[in-house]
Amino acid sequence: MGCGCGGSTGGSGGCGGGARPEIEVPADAPLFEELPHEEDSEPAAEQASGEPLLIASSEQEWPRVRVNGVAIASQVIAQELQYHPAESREEAVYLATQALVLRELLQQRIGELGLVVRAEAGESEEEAATRTLIEQEVPLPLADEAACQQYYSGNQQRFFSAPLLAARHILLACPADDAEARSLAREQALQLIGQLQAAPQRFAELALQHSACPSKAQGGALGQISKGQTVPEFERQLFRLPVGLCQQPLESRYGYHLVVVDQRIEGEQLPYEVVAGSIRAELNQRVWQIGVSQYLQNLVGAANIEGILMQGAETPLMQ
Questions:
Q1: Measured between alpha carbons, how far is 208 from 216 in angstroms, rounded to an integer?
Q2: Cβ(206)–Cβ(170) under 8 Å?
Q3: Are 256 and 172 in contact (CB under 8 A)?
Q4: Under a CB-based contact definition with an 8 Å cutoff, are residues 216 and 207 in contact?
Q5: 164-265 — its CATH code?
Q6: pTM confidence score
Q7: Where does the chain have alpha helices with state H?
């Protein structure tokens, strides 16, 4: 049974643990609009195109959407649906259709400009064309040194090295959904803590007798642990502990842990030179997201879009 301790003392020392730009759509706004059509002319249009303009499902009909006169096929919407999980089918259909409308607008603009592109490694022709379009039409000023320095000065609390702990533990394992077993395990944990308060030198002995973690072979030693190496509920409690025996057992999904912190190495302020590159990349990414979002909104505003209320610029391009 895993304990989520994240120990780093080798194969037997620890079990191991397991912002997109957008515009809000009003809650009462209709997601789709009904396209006007003449009943007499629709069959002829269906016969000419070889596929119906509207396909019904058991829950609702697919939206009829056109972008500058180009129809978004219902089959394409159905295929896109898998990439847009949502709380309701209507919302998922809306998100999928919106993404396809934006994709069509980008493709139409690429065609208007007659862009000739060369795909990079791992890039499709469509992705290369979209990248080239954005590079050509969206001015994206890069963050300068002054902007990076200012961001660092205003957010220094973000730039610390990760703290480290050297700790030992005894895991009293019990199922997360067994209240009675949990209660008994906690009582046992408190009894063992009492024994350790009286005789701390017995920790390795008690670990070997009672711990369900493989680290018991090393006296419960987990080695050095940094954040992210263990399950969140255990980590939150562990990194708040001072050096010494914790006077209460720590609960996790795996059971109760008796913990001794042998050493704490606090995080240190990272100098600007160490984090300058990541700051510059973050600021440039923010500028890119804002610029591309505005560009997409401009495309939407200049287009003739029928059948859907476009109030966002959410698309895989922004991810």
A1: 5
A2: yes
A3: yes
A4: yes
A5: 3.10.50.40
A6: 0.58
A7: 42-49, 74-80, 89-113, 125-137, 145-154, 179-198, 203-210, 232-238, 272-302
Place of tokens 């809000």: 24
pLDDT 10s per residue in the chain (319 long)?
Answer: 556 666 654 444 555 544 444 434 444 545 555 555 444 434 433 434 444 333 333 345 788 999 999 999 999 999 999 999 999 999 999 999 999 999 999 999 999 999 988 888 889 999 999 999 999 999 889 999 999 999 999 999 999 998 999 999 999 999 999 999 999 999 999 999 999 999 999 999 999 999 999 999 999 999 999 999 999 999 999 999 999 999 999 999 999 999 999 999 999 999 999 999 999 999 999 999 999 999 999 999 999 999 998 865 444 454 4
Task: Give the Cα separation of 65 and 111 in Å (integer).
Answer: 20
Residue pair 305/65 in contact by the 8 Å Cβ criterion: yes
Domain ranges of the chain: 54-138+296-318, 164-265
